[in-house]
Amino acid sequence: MPFISKRSGIRLLLVTLTISASGSVLAQEQNPSDPSIVVNGVRTAGPEIKGVISARNGDKMKVTSTDGTNTIVAFNDATQIKAAGGLLGINSRKLAPDALLNGLPVTIKTVQVGDRQSDDSLVATQISFRNTDLKTATMIRNGTSQRFEEQAAATESLRGRMGDIDKYNIKSTTNVHFDTGKAVLSAEDKAALCSTANQAQATENALMLVVGYTDSTGGDDFNQELSEKRAARVINYLQQACGWKPYRMLTPTGMAKADPLASNDTPEGKAQNRRVAVNILVSKSVDGL
Is 6's pLDDT higher than 50? Predict the structure, then answer.
Protein backbone atom coordinates (compact mmCIF):
# COMPACT_ATOMS: atom_id res chain seq x y z
CA MET A 1 0.00 0.00 0.00
CA PRO A 2 1.46 3.41 -0.88
CA PHE A 3 1.54 6.17 1.68
CA ILE A 4 2.81 9.75 1.83
CA SER A 5 4.97 11.10 4.63
CA LYS A 6 7.56 13.80 5.29
CA ARG A 7 10.91 12.44 6.38
CA SER A 8 13.72 14.58 7.73
CA GLY A 9 16.21 11.72 7.21
CA ILE A 10 16.25 12.36 3.48
CA ARG A 11 18.37 15.49 4.05
CA LEU A 12 21.48 13.42 4.82
CA LEU A 13 20.83 11.30 1.74
CA LEU A 14 20.50 14.36 -0.47
CA VAL A 15 23.86 15.67 0.69
CA THR A 16 25.49 12.38 -0.24
CA LEU A 17 23.76 12.48 -3.62
CA THR A 18 25.13 15.92 -4.52
CA ILE A 19 26.64 14.96 -7.82
CA SER A 20 28.19 11.86 -6.40
CA ALA A 21 31.18 10.45 -8.17
CA SER A 22 30.58 7.22 -10.04
CA GLY A 23 31.15 4.06 -7.99
CA SER A 24 32.27 0.54 -8.80
CA VAL A 25 34.62 1.33 -11.70
CA LEU A 26 37.06 -0.94 -13.45
CA ALA A 27 40.80 -0.64 -12.80
CA GLN A 28 42.30 -1.87 -16.06
CA GLU A 29 45.00 0.53 -17.34
CA GLN A 30 46.40 1.24 -20.77
CA ASN A 31 49.74 -0.24 -21.84
CA PRO A 32 52.34 2.22 -20.47
CA SER A 33 54.31 1.96 -23.69
CA ASP A 34 51.40 3.07 -25.87
CA PRO A 35 52.94 5.94 -27.87
CA SER A 36 49.61 7.32 -29.05
CA ILE A 37 48.83 8.62 -25.58
CA VAL A 38 51.84 10.98 -25.55
CA VAL A 39 51.36 14.41 -27.11
CA ASN A 40 54.49 16.56 -27.45
CA GLY A 41 55.91 15.58 -24.10
CA VAL A 42 57.13 12.90 -21.76
CA ARG A 43 54.56 10.44 -20.43
CA THR A 44 54.33 10.30 -16.63
CA ALA A 45 51.65 9.05 -14.28
CA GLY A 46 48.86 11.54 -13.70
CA PRO A 47 46.24 11.86 -10.96
CA GLU A 48 42.96 9.98 -10.83
CA ILE A 49 40.14 12.44 -11.43
CA LYS A 50 36.65 11.92 -9.99
CA GLY A 51 33.76 14.25 -10.68
CA VAL A 52 31.02 15.22 -13.12
CA ILE A 53 31.48 16.20 -16.77
CA SER A 54 30.37 19.83 -16.74
CA ALA A 55 31.45 20.85 -20.27
CA ARG A 56 32.96 19.32 -23.37
CA ASN A 57 34.60 20.71 -26.49
CA GLY A 58 35.90 18.30 -29.11
CA ASP A 59 38.44 15.95 -27.53
CA LYS A 60 38.60 17.84 -24.23
CA MET A 61 36.22 17.94 -21.29
CA LYS A 62 35.93 19.82 -18.03
CA VAL A 63 35.37 17.65 -14.95
CA THR A 64 34.01 19.30 -11.80
CA SER A 65 34.66 17.57 -8.48
CA THR A 66 32.36 17.68 -5.45
CA ASP A 67 34.43 20.50 -3.91
CA GLY A 68 33.96 22.63 -7.05
CA THR A 69 37.46 22.12 -8.49
CA ASN A 70 37.53 22.12 -12.31
CA THR A 71 40.01 19.98 -14.26
CA ILE A 72 40.52 19.90 -18.03
CA VAL A 73 41.21 16.41 -19.37
CA ALA A 74 41.91 15.45 -22.99
CA PHE A 75 41.17 12.07 -24.56
CA ASN A 76 42.04 10.36 -27.84
CA ASP A 77 41.59 7.12 -29.77
CA ALA A 78 43.71 5.22 -27.24
CA THR A 79 41.49 6.20 -24.31
CA GLN A 80 39.36 3.36 -22.95
CA ILE A 81 35.76 4.44 -22.26
CA LYS A 82 33.85 1.90 -20.19
CA ALA A 83 30.46 1.65 -18.50
CA ALA A 84 29.82 -0.91 -15.77
CA GLY A 85 26.70 -2.09 -13.98
CA GLY A 86 26.18 -3.16 -10.38
CA LEU A 87 28.12 -2.53 -7.21
CA LEU A 88 31.32 -4.26 -8.34
CA GLY A 89 31.34 -2.99 -11.92
CA ILE A 90 30.33 -6.26 -13.56
CA ASN A 91 28.83 -6.46 -17.06
CA SER A 92 31.17 -3.77 -18.37
CA ARG A 93 31.05 -2.58 -21.97
CA LYS A 94 33.27 -0.37 -24.11
CA LEU A 95 31.73 2.83 -25.52
CA ALA A 96 32.52 5.60 -27.97
CA PRO A 97 33.35 9.22 -26.99
CA ASP A 98 29.76 10.32 -27.70
CA ALA A 99 28.81 8.62 -24.40
CA LEU A 100 30.68 11.37 -22.51
CA LEU A 101 27.63 13.51 -21.74
CA ASN A 102 27.30 16.58 -19.56
CA GLY A 103 26.18 15.67 -16.07
CA LEU A 104 27.79 12.21 -16.18
CA PRO A 105 29.77 11.21 -13.02
CA VAL A 106 33.10 9.71 -14.09
CA THR A 107 36.37 8.32 -12.74
CA ILE A 108 39.36 9.06 -14.99
CA LYS A 109 42.86 7.58 -14.99
CA THR A 110 45.32 10.03 -16.54
CA VAL A 111 48.86 10.55 -17.70
CA GLN A 112 50.77 13.83 -17.50
CA VAL A 113 52.22 15.20 -20.72
CA GLY A 114 53.94 18.50 -21.46
CA ASP A 115 53.82 21.39 -19.01
CA ARG A 116 52.03 20.56 -15.75
CA GLN A 117 50.76 24.15 -15.59
CA SER A 118 49.03 23.84 -18.94
CA ASP A 119 45.32 23.02 -19.35
CA ASP A 120 46.39 20.44 -21.95
CA SER A 121 48.71 18.53 -19.61
CA LEU A 122 46.35 15.68 -18.61
CA VAL A 123 45.32 12.94 -21.04
CA ALA A 124 42.86 10.21 -20.07
CA THR A 125 43.94 6.59 -20.42
CA GLN A 126 40.66 5.25 -19.03
CA ILE A 127 37.26 6.84 -18.38
CA SER A 128 34.83 4.77 -16.30
CA PHE A 129 31.26 5.32 -15.16
CA ARG A 130 28.14 3.39 -14.24
CA ASN A 131 25.44 2.30 -16.67
CA THR A 132 22.77 3.80 -14.43
CA ASP A 133 24.51 7.20 -14.45
CA LEU A 134 24.82 7.09 -18.23
CA LYS A 135 21.13 6.26 -18.52
CA THR A 136 20.20 9.25 -16.38
CA ALA A 137 22.44 11.63 -18.33
CA THR A 138 20.97 10.33 -21.59
CA MET A 139 17.42 10.83 -20.34
CA ILE A 140 18.22 14.43 -19.40
CA ARG A 141 19.74 15.09 -22.83
CA ASN A 142 16.90 13.44 -24.75
CA GLY A 143 14.25 15.10 -22.61
CA THR A 144 15.20 18.58 -23.77
CA SER A 145 15.59 20.32 -27.12
CA GLN A 146 18.62 22.26 -25.93
CA ARG A 147 21.90 22.31 -27.84
CA PHE A 148 25.29 21.77 -26.24
CA GLU A 149 25.74 25.22 -24.70
CA GLU A 150 22.23 25.27 -23.26
CA GLN A 151 22.54 21.74 -21.95
CA ALA A 152 25.85 22.56 -20.26
CA ALA A 153 24.18 25.51 -18.55
CA ALA A 154 21.25 23.32 -17.50
CA THR A 155 23.63 20.76 -16.02
CA GLU A 156 25.50 23.39 -14.04
CA SER A 157 22.19 24.85 -12.87
CA LEU A 158 21.01 21.46 -11.66
CA ARG A 159 24.26 20.92 -9.76
CA GLY A 160 23.87 24.35 -8.20
CA ARG A 161 20.38 23.55 -6.99
CA MET A 162 21.75 20.72 -4.84
CA GLY A 163 24.72 22.70 -3.54
CA ASP A 164 22.89 23.67 -0.36
CA ILE A 165 20.09 21.36 0.76
CA ASP A 166 18.93 23.91 3.33
CA LYS A 167 17.56 25.90 0.42
CA TYR A 168 14.95 23.18 -0.27
CA ASN A 169 11.73 22.11 1.36
CA ILE A 170 10.70 18.47 1.24
CA LYS A 171 7.03 18.73 0.37
CA SER A 172 6.16 15.02 0.56
CA THR A 173 7.44 11.48 0.17
CA THR A 174 5.43 8.78 -1.59
CA ASN A 175 6.50 5.18 -0.98
CA VAL A 176 5.61 2.32 -3.31
CA HIS A 177 6.34 -1.26 -2.28
CA PHE A 178 7.60 -4.48 -3.86
CA ASP A 179 7.57 -8.23 -3.31
CA THR A 180 10.73 -9.91 -2.04
CA GLY A 181 13.45 -9.92 -4.71
CA LYS A 182 11.16 -8.23 -7.26
CA ALA A 183 11.04 -4.87 -9.04
CA VAL A 184 7.48 -5.10 -10.41
CA LEU A 185 4.99 -2.29 -9.80
CA SER A 186 1.43 -3.20 -8.84
CA ALA A 187 -1.57 -1.51 -10.46
CA GLU A 188 -2.22 0.30 -7.20
CA ASP A 189 1.34 1.62 -7.02
CA LYS A 190 1.22 2.77 -10.66
CA ALA A 191 -1.88 4.78 -9.87
CA ALA A 192 -0.18 6.27 -6.80
CA LEU A 193 2.85 7.33 -8.86
CA CYS A 194 0.76 9.15 -11.45
CA SER A 195 -1.24 10.79 -8.68
CA THR A 196 2.01 12.01 -7.11
CA ALA A 197 3.25 13.28 -10.47
CA ASN A 198 -0.01 15.16 -11.06
CA GLN A 199 0.22 16.81 -7.67
CA ALA A 200 3.85 17.76 -8.27
CA GLN A 201 3.01 19.17 -11.71
CA ALA A 202 0.73 21.67 -10.02
CA THR A 203 3.62 22.87 -7.85
CA GLU A 204 5.83 25.46 -9.48
CA ASN A 205 9.53 24.49 -9.64
CA ALA A 206 8.96 21.06 -8.08
CA LEU A 207 11.72 18.46 -8.51
CA MET A 208 11.69 14.71 -7.85
CA LEU A 209 14.30 12.59 -6.10
CA VAL A 210 13.73 8.82 -6.45
CA VAL A 211 15.50 6.41 -4.08
CA GLY A 212 15.25 2.61 -4.06
CA TYR A 213 15.53 0.36 -0.98
CA THR A 214 15.42 -3.33 -0.03
CA ASP A 215 14.87 -5.33 3.13
CA SER A 216 17.70 -7.33 4.72
CA THR A 217 17.06 -10.49 2.68
CA GLY A 218 20.01 -11.41 0.41
CA GLY A 219 23.60 -10.23 0.07
CA ASP A 220 24.86 -6.66 -0.19
CA ASP A 221 25.70 -6.83 -3.91
CA PHE A 222 22.33 -8.30 -4.81
CA ASN A 223 20.44 -5.73 -2.72
CA GLN A 224 22.40 -2.83 -4.21
CA GLU A 225 21.50 -3.88 -7.75
CA LEU A 226 17.90 -4.62 -6.76
CA SER A 227 17.44 -1.20 -5.14
CA GLU A 228 18.83 0.49 -8.27
CA LYS A 229 16.55 -1.61 -10.47
CA ARG A 230 13.50 -0.64 -8.41
CA ALA A 231 14.39 3.05 -8.60
CA ALA A 232 14.86 2.79 -12.38
CA ARG A 233 11.49 1.04 -12.78
CA VAL A 234 9.74 3.86 -10.90
CA ILE A 235 11.54 6.55 -12.90
CA ASN A 236 10.63 4.91 -16.19
CA TYR A 237 6.96 4.72 -15.21
CA LEU A 238 6.88 8.31 -13.97
CA GLN A 239 8.35 9.57 -17.23
CA GLN A 240 6.71 7.25 -19.74
CA ALA A 241 3.24 6.78 -18.25
CA CYS A 242 2.81 9.77 -15.93
CA GLY A 243 4.48 12.41 -18.13
CA TRP A 244 7.07 13.65 -15.64
CA LYS A 245 9.88 15.47 -17.48
CA PRO A 246 13.40 13.99 -17.19
CA TYR A 247 15.04 17.37 -16.57
CA ARG A 248 12.92 17.75 -13.40
CA MET A 249 14.34 14.51 -12.01
CA LEU A 250 17.38 14.59 -9.72
CA THR A 251 19.97 11.82 -9.97
CA PRO A 252 18.34 8.60 -8.67
CA THR A 253 20.09 6.09 -6.47
CA GLY A 254 19.75 2.72 -4.76
CA MET A 255 20.35 2.53 -1.02
CA ALA A 256 19.95 -1.27 -0.60
CA LYS A 257 18.94 -2.06 3.00
CA ALA A 258 20.08 1.28 4.45
CA ASP A 259 17.67 3.63 6.21
CA PRO A 260 14.90 1.10 6.97
CA LEU A 261 11.44 2.40 7.83
CA ALA A 262 10.77 -0.55 10.15
CA SER A 263 12.55 -3.47 11.77
CA ASN A 264 13.78 -6.21 9.46
CA ASP A 265 13.11 -8.75 12.21
CA THR A 266 9.48 -9.21 11.19
CA PRO A 267 7.74 -9.94 7.87
CA GLU A 268 5.65 -6.80 8.30
CA GLY A 269 8.73 -4.65 8.82
CA LYS A 270 10.49 -6.13 5.80
CA ALA A 271 7.42 -5.39 3.66
CA GLN A 272 7.65 -1.70 4.61
CA ASN A 273 11.36 -1.60 3.78
CA ARG A 274 10.99 -3.06 0.25
CA ARG A 275 10.18 0.31 -1.24
CA VAL A 276 11.01 3.18 -3.55
CA ALA A 277 10.66 6.67 -2.07
CA VAL A 278 9.55 9.43 -4.44
CA ASN A 279 10.50 12.74 -2.79
CA ILE A 280 9.06 16.06 -3.97
CA LEU A 281 11.36 19.05 -3.38
CA VAL A 282 10.79 22.78 -3.85
CA SER A 283 13.25 25.62 -3.44
CA LYS A 284 12.57 27.66 -0.31
CA SER A 285 13.07 30.82 -2.31
CA VAL A 286 9.96 30.15 -4.40
CA ASP A 287 7.96 27.84 -2.13
CA GLY A 288 4.55 29.33 -1.47
CA LEU A 289 4.74 31.98 -4.18
Answer: no
For residue 25, count other CB atoms closer than 10 A to its CB.
25
In the DSSP assignment, the letter for residue 213 is -
- The total of other beta-carbon atoms located within 10 Å of residue 57's CB is 10
Name the 3-class secondary structure at 188: helix
Same domain, 224 and 253: yes
Q: What's the CA gap between 41 and 36, in Å, rounded?
A: 12
Please give the Cα distance from 29 to 22 (Å, whole number). Answer: 17
10 alpha carbon, distance to own chain's centre: 16
Tell whether 168 and 274 lie within a shared domain. yes
pTM over 0.90: no
| Cβ-proximal residues to 65 (8 Å cutoff; 6+ apart), any chain | 21, 49, 50, 51, 71
Specify whether 277 is located in the same domain as 237: yes
Q: From CA 35, how far away is CA 158, in angstroms rounded?
A: 39
Q: Based on DSSP, count helices (H) and strands (E) in the chain, helices before strands.
A: 6, 12
Burial state string for 118-137 with b = 16 or more CB within 10 A and e = fewer than 16: eeebbbbbbbbbbbbbbbbb
CA–CA separation, 8 vs 56, rounded Å? 37
Band (159; pLDDT cuts 50, 70, 90):
very low
Q: Which domain, by its residues, includes 72?
A: 35-130
* Helix H or strand E encompassing 235: helix 220-240
Residue 47, phi then psi, degrees to nearest 5: -75, 160
d(CA 209, CA 280): 7
Residue 173 pLDDT greater than 80, yes or no: yes
pLDDT of 212 reads: 93
